[in-house]
Design brief:
By secondary structure, this protein is α/β, with parallel strands linked by helices. It folds into two domains: 133 residues, Rossmann fold (3-Layer(aba) Sandwich), CATH 3.40.50.720; 183 residues, NAD(P)-binding Rossmann-like Domain (Rossmann fold), CATH 3.40.50. 34% of the residues lie in helices and 14% in strands. The protein is built from twelve helices and twelve strands. Strand 9, helix 9 and strand 10 form a beta-alpha-beta unit. It is globular, with a radius of gyration of 21 Å.
Length: 332
């Protein structure tokens, strides 16, 4: 077996990625041939490079059935937290593991969700710039203490987010697929059903994965009806650091324009990068960030280290970590 493996990275190098991956691969006695396809929408280049790749990191690029079927050497699709970009049925057919990274970015994403909440509470004002410009503009803002935070999803990120909110004096409720499970040590979190959460929360924070098939489908889970329930309760704020397609974006835009959703903090969108002409860019009371919730230095190093370590595992014919649930039955 050759000690050189080709790792296709559907991402630009941030100065940490390639360096970290190569260092870990080298420490295990292998050599990494890292190939970057910087444009996540460049399907032609991805299709060309995937043919002889050993490991693929899709990041936010779509890995189609045709790509998977042409990838004769691929032994691993290593995703980030979400894995909705890989055509799972084709990977299952080829018996190629698809892995994600549960918990790797949890702290970073929870902190970013908290940042968006605080920015909304403070009216997203750049007080420092105002002061430097000689201004003295005061005005009422909102305290988070005493408000109810509804966590749509209660996994690794949700638990960290709940602890942060509790430290601010907020009441926290959460919903998840298995409501029967308890609050797992956080006695200040109440596990509730979906509709109750929408109707009773001041702020709803979306923390669930994007699933576009099956009985647990979450694609466009939040539409006009759900937005009206959120908007009719308390502050009527919405935070999304998960995936844009969980919300019907057209319905969200209309709900903000009509004053149903009072404020929103969004890090993810149905189309990414967010198109320049998107109405979201021009709406008041909306804070937008460019899908960076999980991109802290600490999280990035942990992410790239796991890519390299799982690559070594499959090259050594070992089982990689964190195979997604949909493929567990065929990859025992």
């Amino acid at each position: 077996m050759s000690n050189t493996l080709k790792i296709l990275l559907c991402s630009d190098d941030d100065g940490v990625m390639v360096k970290t991956i190569k260092a870990v691969i080298s420490s295990k006695g292998f050599e990494a041939n890292t190939v970057l396809v910087r444009d996540q929408h460049d399907a032609e280049s991805i299709s060309k490079e995937i043919v002889d790749a050993d490991v693929v990191y899709p990041d936010k690029a779509m890995i189609t059935r045709d790509m998977i079927m042409s990838a004769e050497k691929v032994r691993l699709f290593q995703c980030g937290t979400g894995y909705d970009t890989v055509h799972l049925e084709s990977a299952k057919e080829r018996k190629i593991p698809v892995c994600n990274m549960p918990g790797i970015t949890a702290q970073s994403v929870a902190e970013h969700a908290m940042y968006l909440m605080l920015a909304l509470a403070k009216e997203d004002r750049d007080y420092g710039k105002e002061m430097n410009d000689g201004k003295w503009i005061r005005g009422g803002v909102v305290e988070l203490a005493g408000k109810t935070l509804g966590l749509m999803g209660y996994g690794n990120i949700g638990k960290i987010h709940a602890r942060m909110a509790h430290a601010f004096g907020m009441k926290t409720i959460a919903c998840r697929k298995n409501r029967e499970r308890g609050n797992e040590g956080l006695d200040y979190v109440d596990i509730v059903d979906f509709d109750y959460l929408l109707e009773k929360s001041d702020i709803v924070s979306i923390l669930i994965p994007l699933i576009n098939h099956g009985s647990c489908k979450t694609e466009r889970l939040i539409g006009k009806k759900e937005l009206e329930k959120i908007g009719g309760a308390g502050l009527g704020w919405l935070i999304n650091t998960s995936r844009g397609a969980i919300i019907n974006e057209k319905d969200l835009i209309e709900s903000i324009k009509n004053g149903v959703i009072k404020k929103a903090g969004l890090d993810v969108y149905e189309a990414e990068p967010l198109p320049e002409h998107s109405e979201l860019r021009r709406l008041p009371n909306v804070i937008l960030t460019p899908h960076i919730a999980g991109d802290t230095k600490e999280a990035l190093i942990a992410r790239y280290t796991l890519i390299a370590e799982n690559a070594i595992r499959v090259m050594n014919n070992e089982r990689p970590q964190y195979i997604v649930n949909e493929l567990q039955s065929v990859l025992r």
